[in-house]
Design brief:
alpha/beta; DNA Methylphosphotriester Repair Domain; Double Stranded RNA Binding Domain; Arc Repressor Mutant, subunit A; 4-stranded mixed beta sheet; 10 strands; about 35% helix; elongated; binds zinc ion
Length: about 240
């Protein structure tokens, strides 16, 4: 899709909208500060101070150094993301080369895009509904109580978070567990608070069923994607 960034006007427009899809397509040099940036850098240069470069090497050859804010020398990872409807409302999936990196539910596309951008601050983000299709289909299947097909997950988290997410996938549909039980399941019985935080940070809605974790007294506790959705998911599973 680099054709969208051929002319200086197109490139400047990409910088003005901090276009995360433009990262890697070209680099932006700022004469006054002596740095070169990704097009999506949060810096706000003036047009007259900006020059465009096809490659990092060309920017360096012009005497510029890498911006410390946007780190244009780091490998630029591409995530493809797309939206779809589910029985529980709007969903968004984002996939990397390695697998499903984010699957979330929400109401507002702009807010969901912001969530994605905040979780992957250095990734190039390309909207591509086709790439998101398999994950969204798996989400719909899981909500409908069917066994979703196998998806490779590309979960990013600490060792403890990943252990918690794996333990959540061992909680059978139609049952629930408490945070303390999940903490015991991962061999960290005193880490109840960290377990609760890991549930809140779950990047893969429903397929990693953090909705099956409730308070020790049976109370629903919170749900990142709205407690009504949690209630609906548990009711569907109890009825199945
Ligand atoms: Zn920068």
């Amino acid at each position: 899709m680099t054709t969208a960034y051929q002319t200086d006007d197109q490139r400047w427009a990409a910088i003005e909208r901090r276009d995360r899809a433009a990262d890697g397509a070209f680099f932006c040099g700022v004469r006054t500060t002596g740095v070169y940036c990704r097009p999506s850098c949060s810096g706000r240069p003036l047009r007259r101070n900006v020059a465009f470069y096809e490659t990092r090497e060309a920017a360096r050859a012009a005497g510029l150094r890498a911006c410390l804010r946007c780190r244009p020398d780091e490998p630029i990872e591409t995530l493809a993301y797309g939206f779809g409807d589910t029985p529980l409302g709007l969903a968004m999936a984002a996939t990397s080369k390695a697998g499903l990196a984010l699957l979330i539910m929400g109401r507002d596309r702009a807010e969901m895009r912001e969530d994605l951008a905040a979780r992957f601050p250095r990734a190039r983000l390309l909207e591509d509904d086709a790439a998101a299709g398999p994950a969204l289909a798996a989400l719909v299947a899981a909500i409908d109580g069917e066994r979703p097909g196998d998806l490779t997950l590309d979960e990013r988290g600490t060792d403890l978070q990943r252990a918690v997410w794996k333990a959540l996938r061992d909680i059978p549909a139609g049952t629930t567990a408490s945070y303390a039980e999940v903490a015991r399941a991962i061999g960290r019985p005193s880490a109840v608070r960290a377990v609760a935080q890991a549930c809140g940070a779950n990047p893969v809605a429903v397929l990693t069923p953090c909705h099956r974790v409730v308070r020790s007294d049976g109370g629903l506790s919170g749900y990142r994607w709205g407690v009504e959705r949690k209630q609906a998911l548990l009711a569907r599973e109890a009825a199945a």
